[in-house]
Amino acid sequence: MNFKQGIIICLLCWASTAFADNIFDEVRDRHIPIEITLPDNDDKCTLKGKCRVAFLSAGYGISHLKYTFLADMLSKLDYLVIAVGHELPTDPPLSVTGNLYDTRSENWQRGAETLAFLKGKLSRRFSHYDFENITLIGHSNGGDISAWLANNNVFYIAQLITLDHRRVPLPRTHNIRVLSIRASDFPADKGVLPNEAEQAKFGSCIVKIPNAKHNDIADFGPTWLKESIQQLIRVHLQGQHCSTLKPL
């Protein structure tokens, strides 16, 4: 590499709004890989006017780096995005037998503890961001982890968005705005999604995307699906009523 090439590469690095990190949880002796994406307009985030925060949890077996279609969209909406790698090589594999709610609960609890730890750790590091009104977003098992934390009566979750999670019931509460985007190939377990009466009571929103496949909800999925998900999340975050949320 010559000097000129090195300068160009460095400039590209400085221009990037996303960077990888590894946070160590001493209590659990656990290294947590994350990717942080800063808002496009990071300069407008101040102590008096804090920008919003979203935690993004991947589906099982999918890298947390494979959801840039969401991280990039959220950064344009002035969100600080923390994409979390929940699964480590030393973790036991996700159970596929028995009562999955029981056999997978250890995984969800561990993931919820990771999100809570990161909230405390990163709120001190990024003081210009609002960690007291977090948006949780999770695909599949990452959605189960997010829903598990949201059901734990923590005060700092403002919104929960799940992408075709299937096991952990969504919270029934007025305190958290809930959106669950559903694919078309697998149903959620009984009781996971609020029924119509519960949706009306708590203001939660369930939107199904026709022909969407569960395993396509990532960067490698079709463009039309990613754009539909982006549109639904964007409209939801703007505070619009569920009746206005429709896939592209």
Would you mind describing this structure in some detail?
It is a single chain. This protein is an alpha/beta fold and 248 residues long. It has one domain (17-90, 100-244): 3-Layer(aba) Sandwich (Rossmann fold). Helices cover 32% and strands 21% of the residues. The chain is built from 7 helices and 8 strands. The chain has an 8-stranded mixed sheet. Helix 2 links the parallel strand 3 (52-57) and strand 4. Helix 4 (105-125) crosses helix 5 (141-150). The longest helix has 21 residues, at 105-125. It is globular and about 40 Å long. The N and C termini lie far apart (45 Å). The model is unreliable at 1-16 (pLDDT under 50).
Describe the SSE topology.
Layout: H1 3-15, E1 18-25, E2 30-37, E3 52-57, H2 68-76, E4 79-84, H3 100-103, H4 105-125, E5 134-139, H5 141-150, E6 157-163, E7 177-182, H6 196-202, E8 205-208, H7 223-237
Parallel strand pairs: 3-4, 3-5, 5-6, 6-7, 7-8
Antiparallel strand pairs: 1-2, 2-4
Give a short overview.
The protein has 248 residues and is of the alpha/beta class. The chain has helices spanning 3-15, 68-76, 100-103, 105-125, 141-150, 196-202, 223-237, and strands at 18-25, 30-37, 52-57, 79-84, 134-139, 157-163, 177-182, 205-208. α4 (105-125) crosses α5.
Order the strands across the largest sheet as they lie in space.
1-2-4-3-5-6-7-8
Q: How many strand segments? A: 8
- Any idea what the CATH architecture is? 3-Layer(aba) Sandwich
Report, as a whole number of angstroms, the end-to-end distance: 45 Å
Low-confidence regions: 1-16
- The CATH topology, please? Rossmann fold
Secondary structure tally, helices: 7
Helix content: 25-40%
CATH superfamily, please?
Alpha/Beta hydrolase fold, catalytic domain
Radius of gyration: 18 Å
* Helix-strand string: HEEEHEHHEHEEHEH
Secondary-structure-derived class: alpha/beta
CATH class: Alpha Beta
- What's the number of structural domains? 1
Largest sheet: 8 strands, mixed
Please, what is the average pLDDT?
Answer: 92
What would you call the shape? globular
Strand fraction equals: 15-25%
